[in-house]
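Sharing a chain and its predicted structure for anyone who wants a worked example. Both blocks are below, sequence first, tokens second.
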Amino acid sequence: MLSSSSTTVKNLPLKRRLCFLLKLVCFASSVLIFCEFLIYYVVIFQCRWPDVKGGAHVGEKETSASVLKAIFLADTHLLGEIKGHWFDKLRREWQMERSFQTALWLLQPDIVFILGDVFDEGKWSSPQAWADDVGRFQKMFRYSISTELVVVVGNHDIGFHYEMTTYKVNRFEKVFNFTSGKLITRKGINFVLVNSVAMEGDGCALCRASEAKLVALSHKLNCSQQKPNHSNKRCSDVEKLPASEPILLQHYPLYRKSDAECTGEDSAPPEEKNIPFKEKYDVLSQEASQKLLWWFQPRLILSGHTHSACEVLHAGKIPEISVPSFSWRNRNNPSFIMGSITPTDFSLQKCFLPFESRVFTIYCAAGALLVILVLAHVQLLTPPFYFAQRLISKHKAV
């Protein structure tokens, strides 16, 4: 049977074989273009900016202009030279690059925040490896002059507390212009950037410097929120900031026992939800968490680190959102947060990226179809139409 099929293939006209081959190439190319490029537009196009009140401004145009459109993502974990396999790098970094660039093009945010763990091996990287990783990051997360990118430090960028050194912190700050206790004010909205790795509370030099900056910034913000007719000598010489309550941005979440109360399709898996969190490793310590809440009284906290989504209410009124990982390496269903923010209000909406499992399913289905078409073409597989026709003929003959 195989020899006869081989003879049949050889006898096929060359033009017919080339035409069939061209059709296969076009089909395979179409699947590749859709899975590696178009699918990001199809999925992210469905995301919409949430509505929010415009605050004190009056009029539709002024209200629209007063709203800051911000994207929050976390834990990109660009692989390094030690643990990163070339194919893993290629696959996951292409996914993040296409997701980021598509989101910028479709959603046109004013500002993007990355909440730490930009790199996977920043805590180990040699100077050359660090430079290579930074170069890849800048290519993947390039942005136009109409968008601002702000990066917060994570434990994989500079190491856990016992691995953190002045050298590692300084090289991160040099690239990303990040300092703990830095205030970014846009459209009257105050964002406080925290180096949560330095909130160990053991009095180390980096920890003391970080906490001192946070305390000084807290004093400025508190003085700025006082009423103009309120007399306070301690605030007389303090630079006034917008009176908006701050939004806290950091890598570690504030203290919580576990993810047991977290819900949603991108929360932690059921087998992980009840595992107790370790203070100063999975979450900030209770003491550090209370300090940040007391110093800033934030209206919103956004964090990363756990790679899963969670919403927590601190002190019964302060919401914290844990932003899931942006990478397929950490989640099958990565996502980012879209925020419409004014000085007095905010509204958040989650935007999911393409599921890795769905892309894999499309490739498998396309591959199976290609195999069937090839087998049918060389007559090793009877086409379904002729098979059904043969059955009908036999039935009539009986």
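Comments welcome. The two ends are 28 Å apart (CA to CA).
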